[in-house]
Amino acid sequence: MKKVYALEEYCVGCKLCEVHCVVAHSKSKDIIKAYKKETPRPLPRVIVEEDMPVSFALQCRHCEDAPCTKACITGAMHRDEETGVVTNREERCVGCWTCILVCPYGAIVRNEEGKKVATKCDLCSQSGDIPACVKNCPNEALKFEERGE
Predict the structure, then answer these.
(1) Tens digit of each residue's pLDDT (9 = 90 or more) over 62-106
(2) Residue pair 118/110 in contact by the 8 Å Cβ criterion
(3) How far apart are CA 134 and CA 130, in angstroms?
(4) What letter would DSSP give residue 49?
(5) How wide is the angle at C-alpha 47 spanned by C-alphas 6 and 35, nearest 5°?
(6) 3 state SS of 4
(7) Which domains are assigned to the chain?
(8) Cis amide linkage into residue 138, ω under 30° from 0
């Protein structure tokens, strides 16, 4: 399964991956409308960690043995058997945040706008293409590829 990998030596901390993630998960798919007019604004599902001089994008690793899927009390956090992508069925999520507690990467965030649900990278699965963060990284610090565990 292809996953997103960060190359911290190329990341400059510009956070364009976060911006394009918000746009990709917005209703309008327009950068201005997504940031200025949509309520609630989608959260980025990738987070840029900075501790200068090192910075890198952090997102879900879609673990083979995903602890978030085991900890989820409603079954909202699940693995798609066909694609292998770990996603959250927001309509089933009760906002207990157990998945956040068990994620070894800190890649799941609280979305408290409207319905309280957990939000995480879904590899832009609705587009079926290269994830928006990878496609729009100006330094090619993010790669979407298949590697061994």
Answers:
(1) 999 999 999 999 999 999 998 899 999 999 999 999 999 999 999
(2) yes
(3) 7
(4) E
(5) 125
(6) strand
(7) 1-59+125-149 (3.30.70.20), 65-120 (3.30.70.20)
(8) no
